[in-house]
Amino acid sequence: MNAPGFPPNFLSQLSGSPGFDRENFIEAHQSADAPTSIRLNPFKKIPPPTGNHVPWCGEGYYLDSRPSFTFDPLFHAGCYYVQEASSMFIGHILNHIKGDEPAKALDLCAAPGGKSTLISSALKSNDLLVANEIIKTRVPVLTDNLTRWGPSNTIVTNNDPKDFSRLKGFFDIILVDAPCSGSGMFRKDPDAMNEWSKANVNLCQQRQERILADVYPALKEDGYLIYSTCSYSVAENENILDWLCDTFELESIQIPIQSEWGIVESRSDAHQAWGYRFYPGKVKGEGLFAACLRKKENTGEMPNTKYKEQQKANYKEADLVKPYLNDADNHYYFKVNEDWLAIDKVHKESLATLSQFLYLKKSGVRIGKLAGRDLIPDHELALSLIINKNQSLQTELTKEQAIQYLRRDNITDLIINDKGWSLMTYDGHPLGWAKLLPNRINNYYPKEIRIFSKAEG
Ligand SMILES: C[S@@+](CC[C@H](N)C(=O)[O-])C[C@H]1O[C@@H](n2cnc3c(N)ncnc32)[C@H](O)[C@@H]1O
């Protein structure tokens, strides 16, 4: 069977990969469309869709067809994330390794944020997630996706992996979802085939080693390193595991899987490290490789950071913003310029440490600015999981009105009985803020993320 479109040497290079079935692989790329799947936000409950479950992810569902997510207000409310099914396996690994002890997790290569929202779903409020993206222009999409998801225990950073090497032994879990040659996405994005070459695979391999070496000191002894790519190349996968085991003291972790899931369990040549391969045709999802290793050495620890307390006057101001949050006493309140922010109290020290070494782009939840004793609420607050909805007005919108709101258009046929800041909700889920005035509504949906397309379909 021939496969038009695959780059020269691609199939021959794959022929040695564990579990590779040439005919099955070509057929999956010729005849089957990439399945559409979503993952529900466990903290913003909506009725599950009618499609089948993703076998390795309790919150993952395949959809029978691909709807227009842009025109679904619940998507903008952060009730679900559109994610390729294989990627959800990272959540399965996390569930296997994570105990009850509070953990600090780092998602090093995080934009656009699919795996960050996945990790976030598996964490409790006393766990911390740091989601980092090196490329500045990709940070906004990451912060937007995490804002929609709503956690208050998350910090977004914009740093090079080597900046993390100073955070010695800080993290219990590090995910490196590495930039790679991208062959696993060929079915979804056939244009990616034009970028593929053996030389690029080698370049990616070198970059992957560099990223891993840079971040390694930030992992605690006995902490877990999860490594993943969307490449099929042994050079970027099993060979990287061997390189890791040659270079550092790591133990490979076997992850329980069920044979009917269709995932191929592989072993690296030299160290017999376990890896998990996803081939379209064998699994209902795109190409992925994932592995988990445990650090068995101490490469240094952070000295304790002394936290500089804020001045007393600020605490008085903080009392004005507290009523806007649920569980207000379990949060730590701080100011960045004029804005008040909150993060779970247990992360106060971590925040101080991270702010010394990294560029923080989003920390916990931005509550808003005070104008006298009144709060000008921030969009992050509206979408957050910690908002006290009873503190402000709420205006429930029809689907048509919600789309108008999300476009920043005029909202038609809305009867206004109140005055002031109102949460605009759809099916009870906040979308953002508007200010209700006697004869008009001021729409405060952020213009950068408004719906731009005019027509559905
Ligand atoms: C596979 S994508 C991450 C996808 C993301 N984890 C998700 O699930 O949505 C790899 C990311 O690594 C970033 N990246 C590129 N070069 C990098 C480098 N040298 N060090 C760290 N990250 C890099 C890319 O900008 C990209 O966002």
Question: How would you explain this protein's 3D organization?
Answer:
There is one protein chain. This protein has twelve helices and 21 strands. By secondary structure, it is α+β, with helices and mostly antiparallel strands. The protein has three domains: 10-295, 3-Layer(aba) Sandwich (Rossmann fold); 308-391, no CATH class; 394-457, Nuclear Transport Factor 2, Chain: A. It is globular and about 70 Å long. The two termini are 36 Å apart. The structure holds S-adenosylmethionine.
Secondary-structure topology with pairs:
Layout (H helix, E strand, L loop, with lengths): L9 H5 L7 H10 L4 E5 L19 E4 L9 H4 L3 E3 L6 H9 L6 E4 L6 H9 L5 E5 L6 H11 L4 E4 L13 E7 L20 H18 L3 E11 L8 H10 L2 E3 L11 E4 L6 E5 L9 E8 L16 H10 L9 E6 L2 E6 L3 H10 L2 E4 L1 E7 L2 E4 L1 H5 L9 E4 L2 H9 L12 E7 L2 E8 L4 E3 L14
Parallel strand pairs: 4-5, 4-7, 5-6, 7-8, 18-19
Antiparallel strand pairs: 1-2, 1-3, 6-15, 8-12, 9-12, 10-11, 11-12, 13-14, 14-16, 16-17, 19-20, 20-21
Helix pairs in contact: 4-5
